[in-house]
Predict the structure.
Amino acid sequence: MTTKFTRRRILQTGVAAAALTAVPQVGWAADPVVKLRILETTDLHVNILPYDYYRDAADDTVGLARTAAIVKAARSEAKNSLLFDNGDLIQGSPLGDFVAYRRGMKKGDVHPMVAAMNTLDYDCGTLGNHEFNYGLDFLQNSLGAAKFPLVCANVIKADGTTLQKPWLVLDRDVVDEAGATHKLKVGVIGFLPPQIVQWDKGHLDGKATTIDIVDAAEKHVPDMKKAGADIVVALCHSGIAGGDRKGGEENAALHLAKVDGIDVILTGHQHLTFPGGKEFSNIPGVDAKAGTLHGKPAVMAGFWGSHLGQVDLDLTKDGSRWKVAGFKTEARPIYDRVDRKVVPKVASEAAVIAAVQADHDATLKYVREPVGTTAVPIHSYYSLVADDASVKLVAEAQAWYVADLLKTTPHKDLPLLSAAAPFKAGGRGGPNYFTEIKKGPLAIKDMADIYIYPNTIRAVKVTGAQVREWLERSAGIYNQIDVAKGGEQDIINAKFPAYNFDVIAGVQYKIDPTQASRYDNDGKLVAPDAHRIKDLTYNGKAVADDQVFVVATNNYRAGGGGNFPGADGTTIILDAPDLTRDAIMRFIIERKEVSPKADGSWALVTPPANVTATFLTGPNAAGYQPSGIKVEKMGDAPEGFVKYRIVA
């Protein structure tokens, strides 16, 4: 018989807990074993229903409504369970934008993400970095109606206190394998990337700062133990990465696992799944098959509701307290892919649908509002291997916006460049995760499709040398072609996020992937003698190292996001209040019709004849041809992708 936990008081930070003592009961086993199932959602990003607002079509690969069905099944299989969320809740889909920019959030309002989660009886949650994209007031108003507590130990307000309670202890009744009831105290602590002070500097300056994840854990975990916590679960909105700890890591889950007293780590932020995932192979301290970080159970539940993370613990008594004696981890998907088609494993939960139906309908009306027309199709199927019109539209709109704001400043006569990246370029997002807009009307949903993040516009003043290094950092998206080896070689570095592949419009250049990358995936200079950027020119002349430029970009990049040379927060000359996608919208409204095209400002150096350079894209790429490069379809690839080769 399945027994539901009895919710008891939560021991708040700083409140002394009474010593836990064993109370003899009838039927008490000599060596009781409690099986506890810990469940995780993470990186939901306001994906509640199985619907893609960008394509304005159903999508069986996303949605908390589907994850909720897996939650229901997982709970039915276990005597004891806890459900946690690992952050990035209120930003990330047009539904989130509708609430932020059209509907608004006053104190006392219920955010649709929270309304949906309230139907699932969560035990606790933490904050993600994207919670701060709309400001602290919006954050607090959005999460204020949550029927579950939130913890976060490494965001500190100006008065020295934490923005949320750093930790708490859940006091629960549990049933052992013999049917006897016991008391269990579960400590829960939360963390997020300390880089939010750079990424959302405009919202946090003077209001909040951050501390290192591991430092925060070492400060608070001993207090949790003093408060009686039998086991400690870390809600770590931070990913898994190797390397030595230096402090301030964005992806610090592996380092966190070394903190004494933490028993389970729920991870996120990277939009990957763990256990599993080739991205985590060969990292010392990580067992991607068993799902452990330095021997401790860990899980990462994908993104947008694609998976439910599950950690099954066997707990036994160690004196007066419980300890972890065994475990198993897995990430349970909401769909399968059979014969290249998505097959849902579960149906949506009716309660979740009902909780957000009105906001869903209002969002559909909102995103369908027209703003202009395009004379040509706009797509991103070849954006990682060729100059691309969808990226150039963003760059052109940014430059138009910045030029207007700089025309009365001392910077008005400096050469103006514009940096933009392809956000929807397949990868972990899947074979449908590409921008594709038909010729004809453009609606608000298309603005969000072209530019998916709520970034604001900034401009930086940099030198020609910094422009070159900026592009070298971007060129890390390519694997090095081994000319001596020859044969078929995948040209795209799957671990390099597409949003860090900046194209800089206004200069002309070539990229040679036969050379080593100067920078690693984290932006560290690793090959100082390597140079992939060739023939860098401005107005037909070679760019000089001491030449001065203004580069239009976004707040994430200008503030240090991605660790790009020339973009560390110190070179900013313009901090604009408007969203990039709003600037794109204004640009289109003013022109009424746009006709974006790739102008060949950059190109890959043609691979040598003995190398077949390949890349993956979506099935619909067959309907388009890239500009400035010849490609040829080779055949189907796993997970619904299609393989192409670059033709010499």
The chain has 14 helices and 39 strands. The CA atoms of residues 211 and 578 lie 29 Å apart. The longest strand covers residues 321-333. Residues 1-29 have pLDDT under 50 and may be disordered.
